[in-house]
């Protein structure tokens, strides 16, 4: 099939590349000249495991190309995917200016085309209920009839994006036109061979499914974060509770890890967008307001522990930070807890030396040169008063503890991700604070 993908960010680039891998011809459009320059020089502009090899192969096979020419992409494609940003607006709602702006451009382009071939415009961006209808109305203004707007929300996770796209748990397609369902079925058939379902529904239900999934997962993590804080006070160990809870098949093991609050480009903004739309429809989801509030507080938790340890004064102290990205295996810093934590430390006149395996360049954008950036995990440590672990990258899980001891000023670790065993830390002689477990004093 001939496809266009508008917006080559995490979703657009991964979707475009994976569709090309299945034999489709994909033209990717972006309006960011720096990004396009990189893509056309065959440089993958994001860190996403497994993407590089598919990207190079499909460019070689001439199935994947990049352009700023929206007109050509629309003209040459049967299906046009919108993978555009839908950031949080000032009032919490999703800002749809990118989606609506491109819909206007597509309307104009379709109006000016000599032929009148059937086109499908697919919304892959996360958009509030009713957006498919709004996009349809924008395109109809240009007297176009032979088209359909489909809602096909994306569920990939950063860091596992290629795997998630290639082997999705499910595909959701919201449409009204049988011809559109049929085309989408053909396009996705290679991805569902292993037996995972395509759920076909109306566009409104598809749009709600995306927000419901993200908000539910955010709520689950938030439940665990509050439970962890309670366990700590009550003398229980949240990791033991988590494992025992998760073995109930009705609960399940995944997404029960407590930490320093969820971040990323999706959960925080999508929870807020659903709060807003549910209010607009007169059916407020009160539970999500609490989720958002508890999550914001959870991002403050680690610095509270640090300050308590130092009797309230951390002025002039130096902290080594391992991990900046909002989770491992990505360079994405959007809404990362590290931003809140590092700013709190700096505001208290402490010094910060940080290291991350992939996110240092993006971190500079959010944190500037206020923290120092170390070349590797150990060079962040010399003379630091404590080590803070903010992202659970695998390379932090089994470090050289003797080296850590010899480099740090104090044998003191604040672990926001529970990557170490408290008993082992006791044995190694560290004072160790984690989430939802008793502190280890040495
Ligand atoms: N990142 C994820 O893991 C993820 C997963 C599922 C869904 N989503 C949703 O998918 C959407 C895209 O997210 P993302 O993380 O890929 O965003 P992103 O910011 O990484 O990428 C968006 C791209 O769109 C481009 N763009 C903006 N305006 C444009 C225009 N007028 N014409 C052409 N290109 C334009 C930008 O330059 C950028 O490259 C959002 O709605 C998001 O909520 C994201
Ligand atoms: O048990 C857990 C699991 C995750 N997190 C945190 O939750 C956030 C989000 O993690 P994750 O869901 O893995 O990352 P994203 O790449 O943001 O993916 C989410 O958001 C995407 C964008 O909508 C969806 O497509 C995905 O299905 C959804 O998982 C991160 O800060 C994690 O540290 C926890 O604290 N505990």
Structure description:
Its EC number is 1.1.1.22. One of its GO terms (biological process) is UDP-glucuronate biosynthetic process. InterPro entries: 6-PGluconate_DH-like_C_sf, NAD(P)-bd_dom_sf, UDP-Glc/GDP-Man, UDP-Glc/GDP-Man_DH_C, UDP-Glc/GDP-Man_DH_C_sf, UDP-Glc/GDP-Man_DH_dimer, UDP-Glc/GDP-Man_DH_N, UDPglc_DH_bac. This protein is of the alpha/beta class and 442 residues long. The protein folds into three domains: 2-200, Rossmann fold; 211-297, Orthogonal Bundle (N-(1-d-carboxylethyl)-l-norvaline Dehydrogenase, domain 2); 299-433, Rossmann fold, CATH 3.40.50. α4 (70-76) crosses α5 (97-112), α5 packs parallel to α6 and α9 (203-234) crosses α11. It is 43% helix and 13% strand. It starts with a strand and ends in a 9-residue tail after the last strand. The mean pLDDT is 97. Strands 3-2-1-4-5-6 form a six-stranded parallel β-sheet, with helices on both faces. A six-stranded parallel β-sheet has the order 11-10-9-12-13-14, with helices on both faces. It is built from 17 helices and 14 strands. The longest helix is centred in the middle third of the chain and has 32 residues, at 203-234. The structure holds nicotinamide-adenine-dinucleotide (NAD) and uridine-5'-diphosphate-glucose. Nicotinamide-adenine-dinucleotide binds at residues 6-12, 29-32, 35, 83-86, 98, 101-102, 125-126, 154, 156, 158, 265-266. Nicotinamide-adenine-dinucleotide binds next to α1 and α5.
Write the layout of secondary structure elements.
Elements: E1 2-6, H1 10-21, E2 25-29, H2 33-40, H3 51-60, E3 64-67, H4 70-76, E4 79-82, H5 97-112, E5 119-123, H6 131-140, E6 147-151, H7 161-166, E7 171-174, H8 178-188, E8 198-201, H9 203-234, H10 238-246, H11 267-280, H12 286-298, H13 301-309, E9 318-322, H14 337-347, E10 351-355, H15 360-367, E11 372-373, E12 386-389, H16 401-407, E13 412-415, H17 422-428, E14 431-433
Parallel strand pairs: 1-2, 1-4, 2-3, 4-5, 5-6, 7-8, 9-10, 9-12, 10-11, 12-13, 13-14
Helix pairs in contact: 1-3, 4-5, 5-6, 9-11, 9-12, 11-12
This protein binds nicotinamide-adenine-dinucleotide (NAD) and uridine-5'-diphosphate-glucose (UPG).
Nicotinamide-adenine-dinucleotide (NAD) binds near residues 9, 12, 85, 126 and 154.
């Amino acid at each position: 099939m001939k496809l266009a993908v508008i917006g080559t960010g995490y979703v657009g680039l991964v979707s475009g590349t994976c569709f090309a891998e299945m034999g489709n011809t994909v033209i990717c459009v972006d309006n960011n000249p720096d990004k396009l320059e990189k893509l056309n020089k065959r440089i993958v502009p994001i860190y996403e495991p497994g993407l590089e090899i598919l990207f190079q192969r499909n460019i070689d096979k001439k199935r994947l190309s990049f352009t700023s020419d929206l007109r050509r992409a629309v003209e040459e494609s049967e299906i046009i995917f919108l993978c555009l940003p839908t950031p949080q607006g000032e009032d919490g709602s999703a800002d749809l200016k990118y989606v609506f702006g491109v819909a206007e451009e597509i309307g104009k382009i379709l109006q000016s085309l000599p032929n009148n071939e059937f086109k499908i415009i697919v919304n892959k961006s996360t958009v509030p209920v009713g957006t498919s209808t709004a996009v349809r109305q924008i395109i109809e203004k240009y007297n176009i009839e032979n088209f359909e707007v489909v809602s096909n929300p994306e569920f990939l996770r950063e860091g596992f994006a290629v795997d998630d796209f290639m082997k999705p748990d499910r595909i959701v397609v919201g449409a009204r036109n049988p011809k559109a369902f049929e085309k989408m079925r053909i396009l996705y058939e290679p991805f569902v061979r292993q037996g995972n379902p395509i759920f076909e529904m109306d566009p409104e239900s598809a749009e709600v499914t995306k927000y419901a999934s993200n908000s539910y997962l955010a709520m689950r993590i938030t439940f665990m974060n509050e439970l962890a804080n309670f366990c700590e006070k009550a003398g229980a160990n949240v990791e033991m509770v988590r494992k025992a809870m998760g073995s109930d098949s009705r609960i399940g093991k995944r997404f029960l890890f407590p930490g320093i609050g969820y971040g990323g480009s999706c959960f925080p903004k999508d929870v807020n967008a659903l709060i807003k739309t549910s209010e607009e429809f007169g059916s407020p989801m009160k539970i999500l307001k609490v989720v958002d509030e508890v999550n914001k507080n959870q991002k403050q938790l680690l610095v509270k522990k640090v300050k308590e340890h130092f009797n309230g004064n951390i002025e002039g102290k130096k902290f080594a930070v391992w991990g900046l990205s909002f989770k491992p295996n990505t360079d994405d810093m959007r809404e990362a807890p590290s931003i809140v934590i590092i700013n709190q430390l700096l505001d208290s006149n402490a010094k910060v030396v940080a290291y991350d395996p992939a996110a240092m360049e993006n971190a500079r954008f959010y944190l500037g040169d206020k923290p120092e950036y170390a070349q590797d995990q150990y060079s962040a440590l010399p003379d630091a008063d404590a080590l803070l672990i903010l992202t659970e990258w695998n390379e932090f899980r089994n470090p050289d503890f003797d080296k850590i001891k010899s480099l740090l000023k104090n044998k003191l670790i604040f672990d926001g991700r529970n990557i170490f065993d408290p008993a082992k830390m006791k044995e190694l002689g560290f004072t160790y604070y984690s989430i939802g477990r008793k502190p280890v004093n040495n």
